[in-house]
Write a structure and sequence with these properties.
Blueprint lengths: L1 H17 L12 H5 L8 E8 L1 H13 L3 H17 L1 H18 L1 H12 L3 E8 L9 E7 L1
Antiparallel strand pairs: 1-2, 2-3
Helix pairs in contact: 3-5, 3-6, 4-5
């Protein structure tokens, strides 16, 4: 038994000493080597809308005012109550809810606030994948002149 351990130790030491001198290339296989590249589906635009400058400024003002945690809580409760009182009032509250929701998303918030500060319009683009899922829709806000 002692003889076998000595041989294994000697083989390990020789291998460790020779390994840096001999280039060893390992063939690392990945899944794409076997199945090829899978094309990703492309988003297609299903709706576009351009907000005018005054709407962007109003939205930005509401976003700045409604960015606290209390406003986010009010966003969920206020439309329900306002719609029961009056459909017109519900529309105004929904606009405030949109402002609150946008203020939470930093990328969309930055785009709208930049457009408002530079007197620009905002193009809203709604995109979806060829197959619709609950997570496939995305909305893109772009500041335009």
């Amino acid at each position: 038994m002692k003889n076998i351990i000595q041989k294994v130790l000697l083989a390990s030491m020789v291998t460790a000493a020779v390994y840096p001198l001999v280039p060893v290339t390992l063939n690392q296989a990945s899944a794409s080597d076997y199945i090829g590249t899978v094309p990703q589906p492309q988003y297609s635009t299903i709706a576009t809308y351009t907000m005018d400058k005054s709407t962007v400024k109003d939205l930005a003002a509401n976003m700045r005012a409604l960015s606290s945690n209390t406003a986010i809580l009010a966003e969920t409760i206020a439309p329900i109550i306002a719609t029961r009182i009056s459909p017109v009032l519900g529309g105004y509250v929904s606009a405030a809810s949109l402002a609150t929701a946008l203020s939470v998303n930093s990328q969309l918030s930055t785009e709208v606030l930049y457009a408002a500060d530079h007197n620009m319009r905002v193009k809203v683009e709604i995109q979806d994948l060829p197959y619709h899922t609950s997570y496939s829709t995305r909305t893109i806000f772009t500041a335009v002149n």
